[in-house]
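FIELD: query
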Amino acid sequence: MKIVGIIAEYNPLHNGHVYHIEQAKKLSEADKCIVVMSGNFVQRGEPAVADKFQRAEWAIRAGADLVIELPSVYAVSSAERFALGGIRTLIGTGIVTHLSFGCEEPDIARLLKMSDMLADESPEFKESLHYHLKQGKSYPRARYDALFDLGVPEDDLNIIDKPNNILAIEYLRALKLYAPDIVPVPVARDSCTYDQETLSGYLSSATAIRLALKESREEVLGTMPFFVGGTLFYDENYPVSIENFEKMILYRLRMMHPEDIARLPDVSEGFENLICDAVRNACSLDELLDKIKSKRYTLSRCRRILISALLNITKNDLIHSIQNKASDYIHVLAVNQDSQNLISAMRKYGYAPVLMKKKDQYYCNEMVQRNVIADSLSTDIYSIATGSEIRRDYQGPLMISVSSRNQNDAF
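FIELD: result
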């Protein structure tokens, strides 16, 4: 049996995502599709527009067969760690044969070439990278400039200047390390760029869709399946935004000492002191971010630090998770009722424990249990911040019947 994996956020799920699921199955000739999806908080350092169970249900209705949660320790991290966590979660199932990802560059040979180039960190590259980081540049910008210094052609460098290409390259690097037998299946992005802020019709970017939802623009309904757009546009509880969490984040940070903040991922070089001073003089989240963001500490990086503080995720949690595959686990969020055999297959062939009920955690190691606590805390916090009683973790996965789904159901 061929099973294609997808790593996603679905924030929110839109027509482009439905197209990707269809193309992933078609190009890989897969029988089933497993999605590893960010939980309640996403890689840009913000809450998702809807909770993880709602988004997992959307994914099943859009054509996925099973949805697994990407552990929070990876979901609110850099592109490299996000990709690594997604790959490790997929291979932990023991049954994935293909990996599909959207990218601006459809030529797999060029992506592999750049992946190998980035994996080979020569002393010259490291020295140049260190120089550019010392200039206060963000890591992606410093890496780009370091490669330019080494004479990498601009045509190749343009590949790593696109967000989906960056993730694609990181996926390929992680596959080479952990699962070289899994077949990569790129799907070219069509019509719009990842961060385009204006709607471009039927296929629009998630960024543009979120902005249009915030502005209550009715034309946004044409960019998503009706079961997504209807919920986000007409239900007053959606979309959820970071403003819902503002007081909780400010409170959490004001309760922390500089040494506590220093233990958070991506905090270094005394940045904890700047955060500690700024949060005590900031009356809003926007004001705090304005005080601490810089070329080196980008807005997304700062937001990820704040969310890590909220979820009590530390550098040690991240380091231990990256270094040890024993930290991997499979938290099933939703499954198509016709695909429940995937769960028994994962239990039989996978190396990572499959967690669905509370009792499944009892025999897990300390690393898994600590990461699971962060995931569950994200659900509790999300419920409090939004004032809604959402489904709790480890009550079993959502069982969704979509065997009769047709084209009209998806769009």
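FIELD: remark
The first strand starts at residue 3 and ends at 8.
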